[in-house]
Request: fold
Amino acid sequence: MSQETLFAEPEVTISTSALYKEIIAAYEAEEAKVEVESVFGKVTYASPVNFRESMLSPRHRWFPYKEGFSPSFVQSFLKDHAPRAVQNVLDPFGGVGTTLIESSRLGLNAFGFEVSPMSHFIASTKAAGFDALDLVSLDAIVEDFQQSELQLVAPSPENDTVISYFEPAYLSALLRLKAFYIALENPKVSALFKLAFLNCLERYSTHRKAGNGVKRKTKFAYAGSPESPIEQIRNTVLNDLRVFRKDLAQEPAVKPFQLTLGSCLDESLYPDGIQFDAVLTSPPYANCFDYSKIYMVELWLGDFFLDKSSQKEFRAQSLRSHVHARWADRHTTYGSELINNQVFEFLSTQKLWSNQIPSMLAGYFADMGYLLHLLSSRCSPGAPIGLVVGNSYYGSLPIATDLILSMLGRQHGFEPIKISVYRNVVVSSQQFTRATDRKYMRESLVILKKK
Ligand SMILES: C[S@@+](CC[C@H](N)C(=O)[O-])C[C@H]1O[C@@H](n2cnc3c(N)ncnc32)[C@H](O)[C@@H]1O
Reply:
């Protein structure tokens, strides 16, 4: 998860109220029950829950999903915490498939859910099996692409904001590339071209992903090139395809997995009769990061969103981790008492940048509690559950998501085993003056065990 989005709270009044002390005391009481260990023992920005390693790993490097795990983290979690006969692994927030691909590589049966059609597409494309004939077909199409005049142009997306994020000549070149891959008859090769197309979008846009949204770039790396927009984009795509091809030649297939496009909170989507022997996941953090905004350009230009209702649907199905949508109350009885009572009351007296934050937090933990409830009847006894989360900070109060999930786990049939802190975030701002504030600003792996 990118660091800049972790602790977003501009205005803070330091509180010493009794309610504040009560909340911190509840955190401390939980810390007395569950071991909290610092994995690196020092403040660090590097972390195994960081996508940098993925950009060097075959298949994972096909798309830079900054919110993703590193492959070695998945492997070591499964080796360290699931040494017994593990067969079925679940990642309820599957993202671009790091857990699924790594579990498959270990010969396990991997299952997952993902609400974003874009992430679902990326994970599925990264897992493609290519035999010798497929590679011949890929090579032939790449050769055609090199020669093609790219005369056909795909229609522009029905979203003026997305269109405004490109200079017209670059948008036109991108839409020519899109027309090329849409016309391909081989679906596997078309998907590889589409992935390369998605990879081009931020690079040739006037905007870049930043914090919780997009910002206009100050430097346009593409503008200094002597090549035309079409040639620049063609060369970028060809470079990507060379990388994909190299990885496919080395590892023609990964064991197929079952990644369902839909919410892990939808009980009807769970496979019948499957017990999960290990769960490893990273839910969106309670930090107001809205995936439908950050990946807006990719979602629209990749035809994952065709109209405004697709974005609405996507948000409605997502975990309640931001304030850009209103969700009807759901799973209220599965949430956290501490959040619903003390934290809600405390935050109602604070100056917050959005008055939706207390109900977002109540909704976030109600959703996570409900997920744990669903998992408790679908996990085999002793199954380890790994939840990678970042804590947040609102209105002078740290929200210790890791400790609250440990409490929720106990409530829903799990034994909290350990909280491994992977990253403490260094904050120089004067607002973080108390030891408690600094201590809880961290990203951790919460480990629970099914009783
Ligand atoms: C932190 S990312 C997970 C990244 C993943 N570990 C990887 O390596 O690719 C969280 C993901 O959860 C997805 N998500 C949000 N709400 C969801 C829900 N209710 N069910 C399934 N996926 C959801 C988001 O679209 C996002 O891709």
In short: Residues 65, 67-69, 92-93, 95-96, 98, 113-116, 119, 263-265, 282, 284, 291, 317-319 surround S-adenosylmethionine (CB under 6 Å).
